[in-house]
Amino acid sequence: MPSVVLLGTLDTKGDEYAFVRDRLIAAGLTVVVVDAGVLGTPGLTADVTRDEVAAAADVDLTALRDAGDRGAAVTAMAAGAASVVRRLYDEGRCDGALALGGTGGTSIAAAAFRELPLGVPKVIVSTAAAGDTSAYLRETDLVLMPSVVDVAGVNRLSARILANAAAAVAGMVTAEPVDDAADLPLLAASMFGVTTPAVDMARARLTDLGYEVLVFHMTGTGGRTLESLASSGQLAGVLDLTTTELADELVGGVFSAGPDRLTAAGCAGIPQVVSVGALDMVNFGPLDTVPPQFADRNLFVHNPSVTLMRTTPAECAELGRRLATRLNGSTGPVTLLLPLRGISAIAVEGGVFHDPAADAALFDAIRDTVDHSVVEVVELDAAINDERFAHAAADALNAFLRKES
Questions:
Q1: Is the entire prediction scored with pTM above 0.85?
Q2: Ramachandran angles phi, psi of 185, nearest 5°
Q3: Residue 32 dihedral angles phi and psi, to the nearest 5°
Q4: For 248, which of 161, 198, 255, 300 could close a Cys bridge (C-beta 3.0–4.6 Å)?
Q5: Beta pairing, strands 272-277 & 212-217
Q6: CB proximity list for 160: less than 8 A, separation 6 or greater
Q7: In terms of Cα–Cα distance, which of 250, 214, 246 is closest to 230?
């Protein structure tokens, strides 16, 4: 019988958790209730007590309570809950996880549920399920479900929301499992709208060659997730054709993946084929959100929610240096492909971001900075979305992997 971990602060939300627990049991599931509360008396009997959760974080619950520091309490119980949830998963007692709460409860549950592997159902009914939720989600498949009303009692509206959440988790954990292609070598590829044709063609070729390819959209989260997977040892190779997040990191766009982008595969020694896809652009939100200092730049409204800004020759030169420097630290085989006819769909001749001077600055900086004893640089007289380029990228990665095997 599938088992669901129900994690929360039972001192303040006992009635709500009892309601959800009963809905899950009625759906035929085993429920493991974990109490992450600190102050009041639990309103529901837990299978894993708050003392056990605190102990999992090497904290004494009484001392934590007496300190009266809510922030420290949330931090400690989040660490303990993460340890407990992971242990329950390893013991086969967590096929899915559900929590309810405000910002504090959401912080605790999110920290705990992020310890579960991708694909394990994880849902939080939260008052914080609006605005910027990246601090809770990070690089996981955690689902935040709006509570609509506060999680404060069971009423005609909250009962419907909580029942829906229980049904959603029940459906997830009892659904027929999908076919697992675990016997195929796993690759990761980076894509953006303006490099989609290249990645689609390369992915198709690699699939025909016997690989499974995960494609990530380079919006900050996508790049961080790719890096996380590379660090975890789950990938056989990386097809990193779209490194646009470096431009957002440099200039201050909304899709930065941080300073560790383009480092994990190299540190892990994973074979990688890299390119400069979409380094011609920095991403902002709607046009009226572009910082005023960029008002006179070459701007392109990609859609009502995304405005693109062309990178300058000076910015491209710095991007080339940064990209080359990060690849120079690789401990595994790496090929860097340069598409001399255009680095995105809109940077080709006739495109709104066509800028030969900026592209030349990018390519020259790479040539001057790259360590050719570490990185093989291949220059192609093609645009990034040309079939010739896409197949060259796929074939280069396949050659690395076949050589390793």
A1: no
A2: -60, 135
A3: -110, 110
A4: 255
A5: unpaired
A6: none
A7: 214
